Amino acid sequence: MTSSTSHAAPIDFTPNPGSAPLARLVLAQAGMELRVMLRNGEQLLLTMVIPVLLLVGFSVTSLLDLGEGAAVDFLAPGIIALAVMSTAFTGQAIGTGFERRYGVLKRLGATPLSRLGLLGAKTLAVLAVQVLQVAVISGVALALGWDPRGGVLGFASAAALLVLATAAFSSLALLLAGTLRAEATLAAANLVYVVLLGLGGVVFPVDRYPAVVRPVVEALPITALASGLRAVLTEGALLPLAPVLVLLVWAAAGAVLASRFFRWE
């Protein structure tokens, strides 16, 4: 009688060092960024409560002369644009600036995550928060009588504008936070927020500005976003080319500059 012995394949314990794929790194970092943002009450106040208060305050009063039609029809797209800027630029610049000051970014710099990977992760986290922002602001605006137009195509065009604007604001936020000290970033980000609230076509029509400054105002990313959203949601127009080009230029320039000059410490 013969017996056969089966031999198991040898197990290879040889180390195989290497970083995870870039997509996995970005998604993991985006998840952490999202959790940090949702735990920051001050940032949520800036990004959610202030835009809603502005929308309600200017819609139910006659403080602003916005011409014919319901005030909320003009205000809603501009307030959405303001909320996008407050999350993607103001809040992100301040948060990243203090992360850099406290050494958080220095530790991230020792990981395989690149500057563009960090930009991508922060942009994904911001987009997740903006889904909540747009839902809340749109709900309030609808309750105030907002009548958006454009149908499915209009909402798809609006989503494309929001993504482009988020990329532009996120790259500019990282450029600011990665080059200035945390205190300077805090001051500069809040100053930009206040200035663009007044000049960016959020609550005042751009055509009421002096002709000499109008081209500069129209070249701002928040003006491009606000005017683009009004075109597709209020007027029912197709995706406007000029705002798209403005946002693309800001996004590309911001990404290149941030990847070049961003410092981890």
From TrEMBL:
It is found in: Cell membrane; Membrane. It holds the Pfam family ABC2_membrane. GO terms for molecular function: ABC-type transporter activity. It comes from the Bacteria. The keyword Transport applies. Keywords: Antibiotic resistance, Cell membrane, Membrane, Transmembrane, Transmembrane helix, Transport. GO terms for biological process: response to antibiotic. InterPro entries: ABC2_TM, ABC2_TM_bact-type, ABC_2_transport, Nod_factor_ABC_transporter. Residues 42-265 form the ABC transmembrane type-2 domain. GO terms for cellular component: ATP-binding cassette (ABC) transporter complex. It is a multi-pass membrane protein. The chain crosses the membrane at residues 44-64, 76-98, 119-146, 152-177, 184-206, 237-258. Belongs to the ABC-2 integral membrane protein family. This is Transport permease protein.
